[in-house]
Amino acid sequence: MRKFITRSISAITMLAGIVALFIFGGYALAGVLLVISCIGFWELSKAFACKSVVPGGERVPLPAKKKIDYLDIIGLITIVLYYGVMVFARDPVYQFMVVVCFVIAILFVYVFRFPKVEIGRIADISFSFLYCPVMLSFIYMTRQSEPYGKYLIWMILIGSWGCDTFAYLIGSAFGKRKVFPVLSPNKSLAGCIGGILASGIIGGVYGYFYVTPGLAKMGIEIPYLYLVLAAISMVGGVIGMLGDLVASGIKRNKGFKDYAKLIPGHGGVMDRFDSMISTAPAIYVLSLLLILNNF
Asked: Cβ distance 39 to 76 under 8 Å?
């Protein structure tokens, strides 16, 4: 009971903070995303430093200490540069250039510190950088997409946490058939389907009662927008589940239970934001293809 209360308080606090950031956007949103990205990057770097274990084996706490190395430093510096360019330059080309510079920098480290630095470490640090910091940045880019950003940003929350919540509730009530028994034993077929459908319904209702009237006041009419948003929410739910499973897979490969103890009752950034990390770029790309470039 105590664990449930702690987890609930943390969840409510995080939700309130995210709602406030989504409403105001701008520098505040970018700044928080930068901090979360750096923490998530470090959590993944620590995770990959662990030795792999037999899938399905007993999970243990993640080792608390990891020595920071050149690649970690390059990664953290590049994250700051990436977000700075995203916020102030506002040009995806420059963001791509920062990513390319990151790749070149870590390849230099690999060559000049060979054989102390193995190619597996280069792959690990590349994934850590692209998966959390870069993919999370799509939250900011979605929010800043004018004139629809202040509406589309909520689709990320609906597609990730909305799907997660209803998947848990429906799975707890009706879930008997497990779909990923080794990777994620608690995930059921009923929960997965229910979560995806629920996110679609929420997205459609949100589009019909809030987005459509809001855009109408701006003189913007988009036919059947609520159906488009319902479809985007469902795809976001699927991709969000994928992100959750990827984060779980890393934990099971490495044999630990939580990425960190940062968030009471939840773990680390990668434990709580795993689905949102994957959902954000999916929502942005789909919105770009189906809404932003067409209306």
From this structure: no
Distance CA(144)–CA(146), nearest Å, equals: 6
How many CA atoms are closer than 13 Å to the CA of 126, on its beta-carbon side?
16
For residue 77 the two structure tokens come to 């510096």
Per-residue pLDDT, averaged over 233-254, amounts to: 92
b/e code 150-171 from CB counts within 10 Å (16+ = b)? bbbbbbbbbbbbbbbebbbebb
Burial of 57 (0-12, 13-18, 19+ CB in 10 A): exposed
Judged by average pLDDT, the poorest of 57-66, 137-146, 181-190 is: 57-66
- Identity of residue 190: A
Our count of domains for the chain comes to 1
pTM of the model: 0.93
Q: Residue 56: what pLDDT?
A: 55
- Which of 154, 166, 108, 137 lies closest to 32 in space, CA to CA? 137
| Among 10-14, 34-38, 158-162, the range of highest mean pLDDT | 34-38
